Amino acid sequence: MTNHRIALIPGDGIGAEVLPPAQQVLDVLGRRHGFTLSYTSYDDWSCERYLRAGAMMPADGIDQLRDKDAILLGAVGYPGVPDHVSLWGLLIPIRRSFRQYVNLRPIRVFEGIDSPVRGARAGDVDFVVVRENVEGEYSEVGGRLNRGFPDEMAVQEAVFTRAGVTRVLDYAFELAALRGGRLTSATKSNGIVHTMPFWDQLVAERAADFPQVAWDQEHIDALAAKFVLEPARFDVVVASNLFGDILSDLAAAVAGSIGIAPAANLNPEREFPSMFEPVHGSAPDIAGQGIANPLGAIWSAAMMLDHLGHPAAAKDITSAIASVLARTDVRTRDLGGAATTAEFTDKLLGLL
Amino acid sequence: MTNHRIALIPGDGIGAEVLPPAQQVLDVLGRRHGFTLSYTSYDDWSCERYLRAGAMMPADGIDQLRDKDAILLGAVGYPGVPDHVSLWGLLIPIRRSFRQYVNLRPIRVFEGIDSPVRGARAGDVDFVVVRENVEGEYSEVGGRLNRGFPDEMAVQEAVFTRAGVTRVLDYAFELAALRGGRLTSATKSNGIVHTMPFWDQLVAERAADFPQVAWDQEHIDALAAKFVLEPARFDVVVASNLFGDILSDLAAAVAGSIGIAPAANLNPEREFPSMFEPVHGSAPDIAGQGIANPLGAIWSAAMMLDHLGHPAAAKDITSAIASVLARTDVRTRDLGGAATTAEFTDKLLGLL
Ligand SMILES: CC(C)[C@H](C(=O)O)[C@@H](O)C(=O)O
Ligand SMILES: CC(C)[C@H](C(=O)O)[C@@H](O)C(=O)O
């Protein structure tokens, strides 16, 4: 029987409350589909650890994860710890050390979830955002000059490499081909004059190798508007690190699912572990009360199973999520109900 | 009687069809409020000129505009001319040469316009996006290395100066104070580690001088989501060049008004002419048919009058726009009707 070694990093706040439900679901599916999962927990890799010991994870943290097959992360962030400290101390080093260059964000309107956008109906809106995840606008290159003086300035280099852009485009075009669909590239080559025309050029080059994929490109400002105006028209959207970050959160909001959306940080070659994480934050306001919505973590677990080679098991999970939302009125507080995390999880397990 | 010297740059496509209606409106208001406008037209500053003569405007174009009090621009862009050529050949040099460091985008849901977002109701949504307009992520600094080789790369420098950020923040805080409202700063200091923490720091510094303004900050991904989820909660949103570009188009879409929205490119010190332009593009698909919606240009003209010191005349225009939308069913095609540009303009003139 295949065993998968999973690293669990609960992180901060509700992170520790949403991972156990995901584990329960994973174990049920392992039994059903014939695989096992063994877990290693990194319970203190968190902002609390940072406040106590000056670092989010130990110096050899990345090496401790290296032999795992996948990483399931809860949430990162804590009042009083600047976001760039917590994120560049844990989340971003993992993404980069393990070359998780694809950030995959499925966008789907579920029946039973109200979308804030009139045109976003269940069944019609079902697309993915493929975000470049390790280079681009998020770069360590840059700095500050003349600190504290009137002529102070800060510069930030965005770095786009042919190899880095091409590999994520390949992933996106392959996905579009598999889905039998269309690809939309997010650009801003009318405003960002050095990197974005380069991005466009690489998109056109890759497109030539995928004649079966219809594709177009939109400037990020117009594209953000179209997510609201015509959300049903998208299939695969590929974007740079920053644009993908913005578009994927916007799309999740359009789908009414910011609280339940998952993200996969993929190393498609499987040279290194990939990481799966709910999109929601650590929600310090409700942490410790046992009322967090576990669907983001559970949906992330589904993406993990897909990546580990169990697409049928993954499908079982997303079907159960669709059922619990469409066919029951058990809901956590964020969805307008009063169920606890445990009650909601039980209901979902019953539908699996 | 005060006279204002106005430069008219119709540009491309429907640009030439939406400026004459704006002039008609302006002239009516001049007679009523006691000022005159004299116009200089720059009819051939366009993509056609670029294709013929290799440049969007003459070499001394900027100097020709220098003694004007304001510039009213139609639209720029034409199939076959890359956007970065047309825009960096006309729009962006004007913004930069005349230090139009504030891009102001009013966002308003009008009665009679359907918003795609359920929560966006007329009366509730009424805010402004203040965008930094001359530095930040739109910079000429950067370039391409190893062109055509596997190790090719492009870099793009984002440049944020203390002076450049502070002046637009001052404008935004003053506006928030005037409106008796709140200010929201768009940031991404968790991902963009050099420039955005600097932006946040300057926001906090300026905020200290405006104790009467309540303010907060949101990461751009979460903020884009909130524009869809809670559009009524915003009042003044201040953002960098790129973030403001994205947020203002997104907000216009949320308000259902992408086709009628205006933009002001302001030099608040009035050292140089400011520029006013509808947000819509040159719409080559409908150009020449006389069916373009002139409201974007007319609303831009209202912003121009406000800037030139005629707030009451500006108010007359926005009231007439509100009336034509709420109280008549005369509509151009983009709004679901069949009226021509001329018919729609006449209706509006009748309501002035
Ligand atoms: C056309 C483009 C360069 C421009 C910008 O991004 O500034 C436009 O989107 C705008 O908002 O005026
Ligand atoms: C927290 C932040 C650095 C991160 C990002 O922007 O990458 C988050 O928004 C995400 O999308 O995973």
UniProtKB/TrEMBL annotation, chains A, B:
Signal peptide: none annotated. InterPro entries: ICDH/IPMDH (IPR050501), IsoCit/isopropylmalate_DH_CS (IPR019818), IsoPropMal-DH-like_dom (IPR024084), TTC_DH (IPR011829). It catalyses: (R)-malate + NAD(+) = pyruvate + CO2 + NADH. It holds the Pfam family Iso_dh. GO terms for molecular function: tartrate dehydrogenase activity. Its EC number is 1.1.1.83. It is an enzyme of class 1 (oxidoreductase). Keywords: Manganese, Metal-binding, NAD, Oxidoreductase. It comes from the Bacteria. Residues 5-348 form the Isopropylmalate dehydrogenase-like domain. Its cofactor is Mn(2+); Mg(2+). Belongs to the isocitrate and isopropylmalate dehydrogenases family. This is D-malate dehydrogenase (decarboxylating). It comes from Streptomyces milbemycinicus.
